[in-house]
Amino acid sequence: MTGAGGATPVAELIASLTREVADFPEPGIQFKDLTPVFADRRAMAAVTDALADVASGADLVAGIDSRGFLVAAAVATRLGTGVLAIRKSGKLPPPVHAERYDLEYGSATLEIPADGIELPGRTVVIIDDVLATGGTIAAAARLLQRAGAHVPAAAVVMELTGLGGREALAPLPVHSLSRA
Question: What is the protein's quaternary organization (predicted)?
Fold first, then answer.
């Protein structure tokens, strides 16, 4: 069922609770703060259910540092799977698998443990809060694939459509619950 203007009820709920912050983290960036969405029990339940539908059948759910952890953990709990935290550089003990990538406002490195988690042959769905230019999710997908995982899709709470992230991730299917 869709709401006014073709938006789904979960998209409308996300839009109603999203806080917009001008010039953060630097001038010219219009930051979409989903913290109020995650703090609202009804919205968090709706987001979790919708993302769990996308990730159904996955062996593992991977959340990207740091807001993606919140949603991925909830989805993994709902699905009865494990959760893998894809961390920013320097947060995990060695050895790690690492992937460097460019952001819309700099560069960064993502890491996952190289030991202790068997990824070869496992199906892993990536979950994050916002899809902007696609660089972070693309790096996460490359990182997981190099570790031997099969990554059939990524899912996000919000997609910033004007930044071309979906196109940058093609052919990886991307599911977004809302668009701005």
Answer: Homodimer.
Catalytic residue among 19, 41, 42, 67: 67
> What percent of the chain is helix, strand and coil (3-state, nearest 5)?
35, 30, 30
Q: Which pair of tokens denotes residue 90? A: 């320097």
CB 80, CB 56: distance < 8 Å: no
Distance of alpha carbon 108 from alpha carbon 178, whole angstroms: 26
Q: Could you tell me which residues are beta bridge partners of residue 98?
A: 111
Token look-up 């540092």 returns 65
**58 and 79 in contact (C-beta within 8 Å)?**
yes
Q: Of 86, 28, 77, nearest to 49 (Cα)?
A: 77
Q: Which pLDDT tens digit goes with each residue over 32-87? A: 999 999 999 999 999 999 999 999 999 999 999 999 999 999 999 999 999 999 99
In a domain, 10, yes or no: no
Q: Structural domain tally of the chain?
A: 1
List 12, 87, 100, 104, catalytic entry: 104
Question: Residue 164's domain spans which residues?
Answer: 15-179
Q: Is 104 annotated in the active site?
A: yes
Q: How far apart (Å, rounded) are the C-alpha atoms in residues 64 and 135? A: 12
